[in-house]
Amino acid sequence: MTAAIELRWLRKAFGDHVVLDGVNLVVEPGEKVCVIGPSGSGKSTMLRCVNRLEEPSGGHVYVEGVEVTDPDCDLDDVRTRIGMVFQHFNLFPHLTVLGNLTIAPRTVRRLSKAAATATAREMLARVGLSEKEAAYPAQLSGGQQQRVAIARALCMEPDMMLFDEVTSALDPELVGDVLQVMRDLASEGMTMLVVTHEMAFARDVADRVVFLDEGEIVEEGPPAQVLGAPTHERTRRFLDRVLNP
Amino acid sequence: MALSRRQRARLVHLVTTAVPLVVLLAVVLAADWSAIQHAFFQPEIAADLFPKIITVGVKNTLIYTTFAFLGGLLIALPIALLRLSSLKPYRWFAATYIELLRGVPAIVTLIAVGFAIPIALDWRVPGKYGAACLALALVAAAYMAETIRAGIQAVPRGQTEAARSLGMSPTRTMLTIVIPQAFRIMIPPLTNELVLLVKDSSLVFVLGTTTDTVELAKYGREAVSRTFNGTPLTVVAILYLCISLPLTRLAARLEKRGAPSR
């Protein structure tokens, strides 16, 4: 079976600063993989290389068998199959919630207004924000904005979702709602690659946890193993710092 | 005797208030008010200017300004996009255009379009307003291109990333996500440009306007030489204010209206 995401010797450097130093990772369809690691370890950069928001310096990235790093690759087409959610939501402030959800389906997938609106309402219901469809992003709380951002990505009916520290910018009491939406999504079988600091979420939801440090994968395996009985000193030190602050 | 801190503050306050008042009073007292009134405020001369100063002067000023502004906007948008292009030759072209037309006085550009192009290409911009409007538009475009570029760059990068991650093309992202947001940022500087254009339109006299294309300032100066009196200039100044003040008020309203959704 073709892997959903495959990274082969992925390298990324900003000038002399090497951020990713030969990362190999395979995410199978339906799999949920959580990426943990200290800040600056290259987690977000790795995620952003998957849909080439960040241009890799070396190595190969495949999405459902299509080489994303191929210069001739139809990037816009691949991106329609990869939903992405950002740390700072990045909702379009000049559009209503419904506008945010329908603009890409209408302009990229060429859905009719009625069809796009129907999908959008369905996705809004999934994230529990049906009553907010006419609101502007600035009128919503951070947690609500992030749930709208998830719904916006889902409206493209993607095959997989990338989550880039999506709860890091939220007030603690708003984190739960967002994580619940992600848990629901996971239980429905969505392929997910999640960069996160939420260890409980990783333990409950992930099929596999990847520990990234200084641009390389130090350790990976089932959550019970990586989080419960890490074999590497660097993983142990990181978890010790995170779990006993 | 040493002054306390409070006394010193009071003294400074008194001096900064009193000095300008004294100067103003001196000017008011020294001015020859009857001479001023005779030279600049003669009601009969002012009344004689109407209605033609409106139906010809103001009308033509508005025509030059409107076409120059819309034309300038139309030229400025592609120049701004070229300025932001990832291709060096495009950026150079845009930068050269902007620097050239900003660096040269508008009056020189007017002469170039009105006289140099017809000589060089044996082609003249059609329409009785054509050459002047085109020249003003070209100058305005140089300033507006920089305004538009700054507006586009002020839109956070996350907006582009979110749109691109949804599969939207660079062009569509620019047109539907970035430019609508940039536009709000651009309203104040664009209004500024519009008000400048209202006044810059007074330069089109160098192309030799006729009695039906003459704009407000030239109309006023002709009236001055006809009447041997400065009153028409006063009327002209008031009429320019009547045009530009509503524009700045309107822009302030537009700016406010968009605000809550951000």
Care to describe what's here?
The complex is a heterodimer of chains A (245) and B (262). With 245 residues, chain A is α/β, with parallel strands linked by helices. Chain A has helices spanning 43-50, 75-80, 97-107, 113-126, 142-154, 172-187, 199-205, 223-228, 233-243, and strands at residues 5-14, 17-27, 32-36, 58-63, 66-67, 82-85, 160-164, 191-195, 208-213, 216-221. Chain A is globular. The model of chain A has no long low-confidence stretch (mean pLDDT 95). The relative contact order of chain B is 0.13. The A-B interface holds A 51, 53, 76-77, 79-80, 82-84, 86, 88, 90-94, 103-104, 107-108, 136, 138, 149, 152-153, 156 and B 156, 158-159, 161-169, 172, 176-177, 180-181, 184, 260-262.
Short description:
Chain A has 245 residues and is of the alpha/beta class. In chain A, 38% of the residues lie in helices and 24% in strands.
Mean pLDDT of chain A: 95
* Share of residues in strands of chain A: 15-25%
How many runs of DSSP E, i.e. beta strands of chain A?
10
Largest sheet strand order of chain A: 6-7-8-3-9-10
Question: Which sheet architecture does the biggest sheet of chain B show?
Answer: none
Q: Which structural category fits the helices and strands of chain A?
A: alpha/beta
* Sheet of most strands of chain A: 6 strands, mixed
Task: Please give the number of β-strands of chain B.
Answer: 0
Name the average pLDDT of chain B: 90
Q: Please report the number of helical segments of chain A.
A: 9
Q: From the structure provided, what is the oligomeric state, counting identical versus distinct chains?
A: heterodimer
What share of residues of chain B is helical? over 70%
SSE order of chain B in H/E notation?
HHHHHHHHHHH
Q: Residue ranges of chain B: pLDDT <50 for 5 or more in a row?
A: none
The percent of residues in helical segments of chain A reads 25-40%
Largest interface: A-B, 26 and 21 residues
Radius of gyration of chain A: 18 Å
The N- to C-terminal Cα distance of chain B equals 58 Å
What is the count of DSSP helices of chain B, taking H or I runs of 4+ residues? 11
Task: State the order of secondary-structure elements of chain A, H for helix, E for strand.
Answer: EEEHEEHEHHHEHEHEEHH
> What overall form of chain B do the CA principal axes indicate?
flat
